[in-house]
Design goal:
heterodimer, A: 304 residues, mainly alpha, ABC transporter involved in vitamin B12 uptake, BtuC, two-stranded antiparallel sheet, globular, B: 447 residues, alpha/beta, Rossmann fold, 7-stranded mixed sheet, 5-stranded parallel sheet, 45% helix
């Protein structure tokens, strides 16, 4: 009873293949935004930011403030303001706390960011209370469309498109702008960049801003179709970590491909083997690590 | 032979007489303290200092959504009791600990409360795992422990089979499911194919086992066509929903709570899940408040207490206890009292009633043992009606509430309506019987 593959089931699956692919891409979209933030911070500053999940949760909670008003103009602005505020919070965290542990052992960094995640989660509970907050105005207003006779929420499509767009912008930024080059240079060799006159500290602060803003944007984007609730930070952190391990630590392209793999595997895994939903994602990670220990797009890592 | 026998009798006779004389002499010659008339023991005075009660509950992390309202209601009741003179004149002082849902923290706090802070009673609003960890410790320390949640059947069926100091004062998980099955049989007698979206951890699987067991009894030709198990705190149920829709069940059971249930219902509506499929949810009643106007009508849900039952206008105790409780709760805290608030009410009022009952019988401030005796078989009124503590297994039972969701503009969320309240005796095994044995013969009268 746990797994069900009946003829009718497979028939339905074939006829609604696009639906399951879209479900997978929708999941991948948020995951990509969170994971790209995590991976940018890791690749440049060398910190595995365990508070990144809490940053994402904070973004979701902040977004409910405007989304509950039902004012469409305010809600559109939310997607710019919330990432900006969350980015500033990330910047503050970096300048105030993380700056001091760059040269310490990685255990200190992990302890600090983990402690930070607990503090942030508690702050959220104090500010917003323990009850989940549902702000579905956008989800309701954007309505549903028919895909091959199956209802599908338009908002999910919007999320997928926005994530693709942000991914494109991110690539353009890192690949085509001067600041993007400097960021990448810092991620390759901190001392050489410093010797060439780059203010490395400033770049680190900037990546924390950018990475946190991406996490905040993910929170704001997902909240209409779900709820802001305590505990959402933990899953987000674990799954985005799996994504960047699959894709290769520090690689945006890896985060992109990794999240699509995880999203699709999860979507079809739930259909065929619902009992092993989580196991599947870990199996994929294990297989990738066995074949390519640095992940799909990982590079030789050298940190001084 | 005869002589010997006679001699023997003589000797024994003399011995007996001698013993009797000696005893009599001993009696009359005994030191004065033995002949002194027994003086009735002076009852211990009711102490003057406040009555300290320890509270172990979950105030951080996702579990807080369950227990934070419960604590507020407890504090509200304590304030009220204190304003009316406390228990036998003693003001109540709460010492509150946040376990974060971790059993080892719970046990730690329990020991600290009893050994260092010297609390007299402990109330635990906690998870099943915590209740299972706490019960043996309380028994060993001979310390009264009132469990508010920890609804797993295993607690009194396997862990603490002969409880003396441990009491559970809310309905437990068997009733959540059996009441739901009874109500479903009443309104949808002909459904056949079932699917489940269940939280992938102990509570989700246990609850589905019980619910499936109850459904199998009432719908003998039932069939499970899809099972999906999202992990706790999932943000996205779209693939689970699509999988369920693909299996074309008549009924989907949402064995989820808190934000998970809200998210699943929201996304379910978007995917058209409830267009042709009926939705049921054990304990779901109050979690959909957070979904506001997103909850569709006619989802069948059960809960352990609902603030509109017993109806306020039907009988004076309902007005006296339930309406008053409901009115006081939003006034002080801006919300509606949920089932944990109800449990908190009974936790503190059962204690109060037991202490006063023991005082009336024994005189003086009661010992732990006297309080346990007074708690056994105690019945008190409260917001959820009369509740009774079974003396045999220390499980308290009250009405289980079921109803169909219905949007109500007065509240801005879907309330349960009309509400079916099933008497507890029909929904839970008698003391000492395991639910798996009991359910085999359950439900014939509803077929």
């Amino acid at each position: 009873m746990g797994r069900r593959v009946s003829i009718g089931g497979v028939g339905y699956l074939l006829s609604t293949l696009p639906l399951f692919i879209l479900n997978g891409l929708f999941y991948a979209a948020t995951l990509f935004l969170i994971a790209s933030g995590l991976t940018i911070i890791f690749s440049v500053a060398g910190i595995l930011n365990l508070a990144h999940g809490a940053i994402f949760m904070l973004g979701a909670y902040l977004a409910t403030l405007t989304m509950l008003t039902g004012d469409i103009r305010l809600i559109i602005i939310t997607f710019i303001i919330v990432p900006f505020i969350i980015g500033l919070i990330g910047l503050g965290i970096e300048r105030g706390l993380i700056k001091w542990v760059y040269d310490r052992e990685s255990e200190y960094q992990l302890l600090l960011t983990y402690g930070l995640s607990l503090v942030l989660a508690d702050l959220v509970r104090m500010m917003f209370g323990p009850q989940p907050i549902s702000a579905s105005f956008l989800l309701r207003e954007s309505g549903v469309i028919d895909i091959l006779g199956v209802t599908y929420p338009v908002y999910n499509l919007i999320v997928i498109v926005v994530a693709l767009f942000v991914g494109l912008l991110l690539w353009l930024f890192l690949d085509r702008t001067r600041l993007g080059w400097i960021v990448r240079a810092c991620s390759f060799d901190r001392e050489m960049s410093s010797a060439l006159g780059v203010n490395v500290g400033l770049i680190y602060a900037f990546t924390f801003f950018l990475g946190s803003a991406l996490g905040g944007l993910a929170g704001a984007l997902i909240v209409p179709s779900t709820v802001a609730m305590l505990g959402m930070d933990v899953n987000a952190l674990i799954e985005s970590f799996i994504v960047i391990v699959i894709g290769g630590l520090g690689s945006i392209r890896g985060a992109f491909i990794g999240s699509i793999i995880v999203g699709l595997v999860r979507s079809f895994g739930i259909y065929f083997f619902p009992r092993y939903e989580l196991a599947f994602i870990y199996i994929i990670m294990a297989v990738v690590l066995l074949i390519r220990p640095r992940g799909l797009f990982g590079r030789e890592y050298r940190r001084v | 032979m005869a002589e010997t026998r006679r001699d023997f009798l003589k000797v024994t006779g003399a011995g007996i007489v001698g013993l009797a004389v000696g005893a009599a002499a001993g009696y009359y010659l005994a030191p004065p303290k033995i002949v002194e008339k027994p003086v009735p023991q002076k009852p211990p005075e009711v102490p003057k200092e406040p009555l300290k009660i320890g509270v172990i509950t979950i105030l951080s992390g996702p579990g807080a959504l369950l227990f934070d309202p419960g604590l507020k209601a407890l504090q509200m009741e304590v304030e009220k009791i204190n304003a009316n003179g406390g228990i036998l004149g003693r003001k109540i002082e709460l010492s509150i600990k946040d376990s974060g849902g971790k059993p080892e923290n719970s046990v730690d706090f329990f020991r600290r409360l009893v050994e260092e802070e010297g609390v007299e009673f402990v109330i635990s609003g906690s998870t099943s795992a915590e209740a299972i960890a706490l019960a043996p410790v309380a028994e060993q320390k001979k310390q009264v422990l009132i469990i508010e949640e920890g609804t797993v059947a295993k607690l009194f069926e396997e862990v603490d089979t002969n409880p003396k100091y441990v009491f559970r004062i809310n309905n437990y998980d068997i009733l959540d499911s059996t009441s739901l099955a009874i109500a479903m049989k009443k309104i949808w007698p002909d459904v056949k194919k079932f699917a489940v979206i269940g939280a992938d951890y102990a509570w989700g699987h246990d609850t589905w086992d019980i619910l499936k067991g109850a459904i199998e009894k009432l719908y003998p030709d039932m069939e499970v066509v899809a099972e999906t198990w999202p992990p706790l705190f999932s943000q996205d149920f779209s693939s689970h929903i699509s999988t369920v829709i693909a299996a074309k069940p008549d009924v989907v059971a949402l064995v989820l709570w808190g934000g998970d249930l809200v998210t699943c219902i929201k996304q379910g509506v978007q995917y058209g899940l409830f267009k042709d499929i009926k939705g049921i949810s054990p304990t779901g009643g109050e979690y959909v408040w957070a979904a506001g106007t997103d909850t569709p009508d006619n989802l069948l849900m059960s809960t352990r207490y609902y603030f509109t039952y017993p109806p306020w206008d039907k009988w004076w105790p309902n007005r006296e206890f339930n309406l008053e409780f409901h009115n006081r709760y939003p006034d002080s805290h801006g919300g509606w009292p949920g089932f944990n608030c109800n449990s908190s009410y009974y936790a503190i009022h059962f204690l109060k009633a037991a202490i006063e009952r023991a005082y009336a019988i024994y005189g003086g401030w009661p010992t732990q043992e006297q309080v346990t005796e007074a708690l056994e078989g105690l019945m008190i009124p409260g917001p959820g009606g009369y509740r009774y503590i079974r003396p045999e297994d220390h499980q308290s039972l009250g009405y289980a509430i079921t109803g169909l969701t219905k949007q109500d503009p007065r509240y801005g969320f879907a309330i349960l309506d009309p509400i079916e309240a099933v008497p507890p005796e029909e929904m839970a095994p008698p003391p000492g019987v395991k639910w798996k044995d009991w359910i085999k013969h359950w439900g014939e009268e509803y077929l």
